[in-house]
Write a structure and sequence with these properties.
Structural class of chain A: alpha/beta
Helix content of chain A: 40-55%
Mean pLDDT of chain A: 93
CATH topology of the largest domain in chain A: D-Maltodextrin-Binding Protein, domain 2
Largest interface: A-B, 90 and 91 residues
Number of strands of chain A: 11
Largest sheet of chain A: 6 strands, mixed
Number of domains of chain A: 2
Number of helices of chain A: 13
Low-confidence stretches of chain A: 1-8, 14-29
Strand order of the largest sheet of chain A: 7-6-8-5-9-11
Oligomer: homodimer
CATH superfamily of the largest domain in chain A: Bacterial extracellular solute-binding protein, family 7
Distance between the termini of chain A: 100 Å
Strand content of chain A: 5-15%
Chain lengths: 363, 363
């Protein structure tokens, strides 16, 4: 090999090295890798508000990451397991989930506390508990043994007490009352002699119309309007059992750990914002839909449960909670944290929002 | 030049081109450029809650952008112009601002409507108006002629009516009342015979203690506690004049246009989240501080203004608003949008939060 040939070879080698170094620099500083996460949601495709929250989250993540974080959303029609989200994310079959924490209480009893509790917090009171009052840390204690991260996933606003065919004037009127009301609230009503039942959403309208059931609860005007219950039930009761229902984003911890720090930050902020946005949207949709119900069905009567009924429900709630707390130290810790937080924040809610709304309603 | 020399030269040229191309590729796909924005805030350094919102926003932007978006925050001690933020951002002296829209009403009257209006919306009602009820579009109409973008910047929660030395039992008690209450609310009180004054924050405590003034309003327990007014005034009145005070992020439009799309998305989401977070933090701090005032100063009495006084304030408010609407078509459009939105959302707030808080307070 001549000297000239050697020089040429060195130059060519240098060329390749410079080019390689340049690309290494690119990938080390900016990390152009596209991360793809799969999310399973409990809801069907295009489910209003709940489904908007996952789409909003995925869109923010994609735009903020310049396409480096892609989240594919599978609705229940695709994965066929609306109440299998916890297991599918835990096992890694999905990286993320969008659901509600209290759906998992049969599996992990302490997941009950992170959606909304009877006689519990209003939406922003609860956000304050999550982010400033120790709620996130307690939620982590419950979820981390399952290799899961859990974050607030969007608020429905205060849920209504439900649609009733008959007026509830006393605790006696709850005796034998057939009501679609699932979960912990159903257990409370059962304590007072009601007969809570669970019925598939598609059969609710007919069941209420034909008096197979006497009452049902769904969400609030935001989602009740399209179910049509206002056409067939005269009484709409105000809420007690879910004052601030918060949905949930779940993440598999291994999928989370694989993300670079900037995408972790993007994902966390996208989830937080989508959750807050869903509360804002729920407020808007409930306002709009309640106005529409009132104008088209002016005979619908809004009723508060009598104080005697509320007291009885509250006592039953406390009895049931006590059973949980006696069996489980972490349940006790969470219950106490929530009770103490309400004791701290509620007097403020009373001299601010309650005073203002009462004063304005008098005018 | 020999053939060999020519070959070498071509190879060296190719080397340079490959290297250059590699770097061009880096900057085109990932854009490692660091964008530095300067933000002027109306508040002093380390001002609680308000100042936390700007720090929170800048931190999220930095983390999500992997350091590509750096926001330097200058507090009022640095730029010396707390009420010059609008002009400094408009001129491009600063890229961003954090302040409150109603501070600019002397300059641009229609900026009045985007903070909180007397007898107006609660915080989440107002977020719903901004994001789903046309509020953002109206705010853009007001700010875009000034080359500015404006976004919600954090909520203080419902402001209290203020600290009073004397009880207000009738409209007559407002005659000659010397009260520190700036802005539009002060104009309303003046209509009813009160003497609104403005006093520097550092002199408020002494003025109220020595009865140079009879009353003052500040914010709510979140920020009132450290001012110490509860030590020297017996009555704390509930709110009417700022039910949901929202601060503001301002951006110079040229500075905004220079950002690549992903950093625009990051900045917009960081501002939105910091605003929502500030509302959550305000709820927490007011709850905590009100609990502390109640336990240390149990003699502080919370009072509602009598319905007769509220009616008179409301009528004065409507008279003053009408004057604005008659002079300015956009003022009329904004006023109508807000009034219609309250008419739509408030019945929902009443059957949800009001019903719930009243029912819980009876127990």
């Amino acid at each position: 090999m001549s000297l000239i040939q050697k020089s040429l070879k060195r130059v060519l080698k240098a060329t390749a090295m410079v080019a390689a170094m340049a690309f290494v620099t690119t990938s080390a500083t900016a990390d152009d890798t596209v991360y793809r996460l799969k999310l399973a949601e409990t809801w069907g495709p295009n489910f209003p508000i709940f489904g908007d929250a996952t789409k909003n989250m995925a869109k923010m993540a994609e735009e903020m990451s310049n396409g480096r974080l892609q989240i594919r959303i599978d609705s229940a029609n695709k994965h066929k397991a609306p109440l299998g989200v916890f297991d599918m994310v835990k096992s890694g079959q999905y990286d993320m989930g969008h659901s509600a924490s209290y759906y998992w209480k049969g599996k992990v009893p302490n997941t009950l506390y992170f959606t909304s509790m009877p006689f519990g917090m209003l939406p922003t009171e609860q956000y304050a508990w999550f982010y400033y009052g120790g709620g996130m840390e307690l939620m982590e204690k419950v979820y981390s043994p399952h290799n899961l991260l859990s974050f607030p996933g969007g608020n429905t606003d205060t849920q209504m007490g439900g649609w009733f065919q008959k007026e509830i004037k006393s605790v006696d009127d709850l005796q034998g009352l057939k009501m679609r009301i699932p979960g912990f609230a159903g257990e409370i009503l059962a304590e007072l002699g009601a007969k809570p039942t669970n019925i598939a959403p598609g059969e609710l309208y007919t069941s209420l119309e034909r008096r197979t059931i006497d009452a049902l609860e769904w969400v609030g005007p935001s989602l009740d309007l399209r179910m049509g219950f206002h056409k067939i039930a005269p009484y709409y009761y105000t809420g007690w059992h879910e004052p601030g229902t918060e949905l949930q984003f779940l993440i598999n911890k291994r999928a989370w750990d694989r993300l670079p720090d900037d995408l972790k930050a993007i994902l966390q902020v996208a989830m937080k914002t989508a959750a807050y946005d869903m509360y804002t949207q729920s407020k808007h949709e409930s306002g709009k839909n309640w106005a529409s119900i009132q104008s088209e069905y002016p005979d619908v009567q809004v009723k508060d449960f009598p104080p005697e009924v509320i007291s009885a429900l509250r006592e039953a709630n406390e009895r049931l909670l006590k059973v949980h707390a006696e069996k489980d130290a972490l349940a006790k810790e969470i219950q106490e944290s929530q009770a103490n937080y309400i004791e701290q924040v509620r007097p403020w809610s009373n001299i601010s929002h309650r005073a203002y709304l009462n004063s304005q309603a008098q005018q």
